[in-house]
């Protein structure tokens, strides 16, 4: 992913920092185009991260790009960070740009295990200029500007660590007068082989300031 020993050297989503307090920050993200795939993690060998290879093939990170531009052959698209993953009910959709982001959402028990993974495309692309996926499972979406409360932390993410960070962030946001506007996203910036103490992760929650 263009990240060496934990140092992030690839393009990341553009945002304006509104407020910062320790490891928690309020960010206004700019609009972006994302490529996403939704799937049942139980049907994938890699479980929750099963969509990674599908999206990697779309951008051409592995072999010939699974995309096209009109009648022209596919073009390679630069990898960004983070990768975004969202757990959600069958009717809910994800939002955001490039780390890996994971979001827990509402939904009935039958559909709650569905996952949506996203790659945020480089800022040079629009929905009109981004290459069209040749794999029907990959969809392109325009992500609107949005404000998030974000907490940054290190380590290899597991459900317990993730939930700890979610609760810490929610408590801080609510005490500072912010209204929670949706479920959280989990953004992971590093490949799995990165040492745990060099990994950068973020939990992101959409917010509005209470008047």
Automatic annotation (TrEMBL):
<dbReference type="InterPro" id="IPR006917">
    <property type="entry name" value="SOUL_heme-bd"/>
</dbReference>
<dbReference type="Pfam" id="PF04832">
    <property type="entry name" value="SOUL"/>
</dbReference>
<comment type="similarity">
    <text>Belongs to the HEBP family.</text>
</comment>
<dbReference type="InterPro" id="IPR011256">
    <property type="entry name" value="Reg_factor_effector_dom_sf"/>
</dbReference>
<dbReference type="GO" id="GO:0010017">
    <property type="term" value="P:red or far-red light signaling pathway"/>
</dbReference>
<dbReference type="GO" id="GO:0020037">
    <property type="term" value="F:heme binding"/>
</dbReference>
<protein>
    <recommendedName>
        <fullName>SOUL heme-binding protein</fullName>
    </recommendedName>
</protein>
